[in-house]
Amino acid sequence: MPRPRSETPKEHTSIIRAKRKDGWTYVQRVVSVYDPKIKNSKRLSTEYLGKLPPGETDLEKLVPLEPRRRKGSLKADKISAPAKEVADPRDQSRIIYPLDIVFCVILLAAMEGKTSCTEIAEFWRQCRPC
After folding, report:
1. Which residue, 52, 3, 65, 50, is CA-closest to 23?
2. In this structure, how many other beta carbons lie within 10 angstroms of the beta carbon of residue 60?
3. What does the pLDDT read at residue 83?
4. Which of 90-106 are b and which e, b meaning 16 or more Cβ less than 10 Å from the residue's Cβ?
5. In 3-state terms, what secondary structure has residue 15?
6. Does an H or E element contain 37, and which?
7. Residue 70: what pLDDT?
């Protein structure tokens, strides 16, 4: 008689060490659950805890890792920060679009070779959703 399958399998947390070629060892916390279809554990999440210097095995000497970010990713604050330094001479009661959006549209239009005021306005009219 086959063993009954649980609808909510128990999660298992383990600490895993992965050696690198330069001698350092990454330490990860892995949460997994047993999957009877593949007859093996399936990883649910992996979290890097830090790294150990070459030759060390004691977790007390763990060096924390800097937070990873994707290559080429920037926070929105870094992109819009220069626009905040520019004084906005427009009448505040009639503003529809913030200055950073206006700068972005001008930049995109310039990348297509449209540099005059009328060309930029036509570019914005064509590209914005109705």
Report:
1. 52
2. 6
3. 67
4. eeeeeeeeebbebeebb
5. strand
6. none
7. 66
**Torsion of Cα atoms, 59 then 65 then 12 then 19, to 10°:** -70
Helix (H) or strand (E) holding 17: strand 11-19
Q: How much is the pLDDT for 1?
A: 54
Q: How far is CA 36 from the centre of its chain?
A: 33
Burial class, 52, CB count within 10 angstroms (exposed 0-12 / middle 13-18 / buried 19+): buried
Query: What stretches in the chain show pLDDT beneath 50?
Result: none
3-state secondary structure of 40: strand
Q: State the pLDDT at residue 5.
A: 64
DSSP codes, 53-86: -TT---GGGPBPPPPP--TT---HHHHHHHHHHS
The pLDDT, as a whole number, for residue 76 is 65
